[in-house]
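Request:
You are asked to prepare a plain-text protein record giving the amino acid sequence and the backbone structure tokens, at your earliest convenience.
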Amino acid sequence: MSTDIKSIDPGTLKEIYRQMSRIREVDKGIQAGLSSGKFMFTYWPMTGQEAIPASIAPLISSEDHMVTIYRGIHDQVAKGVPLKGLFAEALGREGGVNKGKGGSPHISDPSSGSMLTTAIVGAGAPIANGLALAEKMRGTDKVTIVNFGDGATSIGAVHEAMNLAGVWKLPVIFMCQNNLIGEYTPIPEYTASKNFTDRAEALGFRGVRLNGNDPVEFHNGMKEIIDSVRSGNGPVFVEAMTLRLGPHAGVGWSHLLKGEELQEAKADWPVPATRQRLIDAGICTAEELDDIDSAAVAEVAEAIEWAMSSEVTGEDEMLLDVYGDPDTVPKRGQRVKRDAEPEYTGETKTMAMFEAVQDALDLSMQADENVYCLGEDIGDDPGGVFKCFKGMQSKWGERIRPTPIAEQAIIGAATGSALVGMRPVAEIMFADFVGVCMDQITNHAAKQRYMSGATTHVPMTVRMIAGGGIGGFGAQHSQSTEALLLHQPGLKIVYPSTPTEAKGLLMSCIFDDDPCIQMESMMLTYALKEEVPVGDYRIPLGVAKVKREGTDITLVTYGWQVMQCLQAAEELAKEGINAEVLDLRTLLPLDYDRILGSVEKTGRALVVHAAVEFCGLGSEIASTINEELFTKLKAPASRFGAAYAPIAYSKTIETAQVPNVASIVARVREMFK
């Protein structure tokens, strides 16, 4: 039974119908374009779900944030994304809101508050937490709404996000548009749950079920919910009951609803049903509603005509917006000259690497109130597993945020807050754990600048400890995972070998406008101490450094292998081989100018890393050296990495499988035979 129409302001209901009419015309326009062959793009129709965003629209403004999914074009229309830019984006045109680089499943329009659209089911929920967290930390009353379908409730990211939101009482609304079908599978076949609201209750916050096909009930219910969230009462999970009348993708009617079932669903369709209710209640005449519908038809037709006249986004845009600086993109033969940091002559203090990291974090938080830290166990006790945060929670309060054990939630929150100008530093305890949150790092943080056509970017930093060289940590706590991450355009990666570089690179990462990852070697965390510059100290990204001058061969390396190579170079010197050791420091952007310059001098090169040799960074560097310096080499450049096996728990095996001083020396000897 429909809610009493008198319980809503007539003007509000008329505005809700106007939004539904606009959504319906966009839906019709796209389906007509696809059916005729005029359009060529993938479309996931939301036919039947129009009332949900239309009923919310009068309750929020462009200052409030929204995250949605690839089926969320109705959410985009109601949120205020301009239709000309929306159609142009779907068509891959220059005039698109994201320059045609994101397309229909990746719309970002910060001007309307539509912050991110994801094509990964459920992945928007952790990012929405970050948007909400930023506003909570800034003390605003802005609300974030994250839209997803019922199918996303099976995804772990949603559960992690809901748990974190409940713990932190974030101003976020989890909007499950329950259309009863997860892609092609109806609910009884993929969950035994009787409803989804109980999941919120189990996590300690409110879950509400509303009729998403009744704009009166839905608007009235959402008004109370949005007011509650604005007032700081924490998150709410809304199960908006509706029905998807179209197929999972494409055009036409649902293949799963047939005969009488489809007819009943159409009878409950909110667009025609609401139109009739307005007429029956005497709120609008048929002629008034015809005018609203005609205006929507004209708006969509104008938008399509404008979008079709916009130029197709050209290949000249291919490598733009991957990073803020196009020169960061690695290209064959590229030798970008970057200035090194000036020689430091100021005050220093003896620090281990963990102390240098803490110093960098502390100074960065002093310099910019948008810097904050989040990660597992980083509160004052224990102050981080590796003690990098000892005492910092007492000093900085909520800017040091211990999290649940939930890597997707951690990286998602960092990504979302970075979208609105925060500079989060997220800790992933071990580099091995990156596999748990790979989607958030590589599909969202790394790609967001590009997919949004640079309308948004993600200035976040992720710190992770790389094991190895110690023994006793085994296959799941000892990997060096940089090769996985280097294959993901959009990320910058640094790997310091000393406390000074850990501090200088980390500060540069924190204040960089692209997502950065700092890998810190467990072997060096406590063992290596040196005099570290005091105060704000930064090492520019993309600048390698010669750690030992040489004339006969260049050992190109990074991380804890720098120490191994320096010791190997001393052993080689006893045999008359003068090795130069080049510490990359930054793996991307990669300093090919200094790499090639060093090898031009020595005529030989061996790239050494702790990561598995097969398909490792050493292969890329050695190949480039061979291509660029073919006529100048005394021998082919080569690479030396770990054996192709998980890292063994046994220190004896680990020592043998990862390059060490003796094996590096032996490998160099082979190159001189």
User: Anything to note?
Assistant: The chain has three domains: 5-309, 348-533, 545-671.
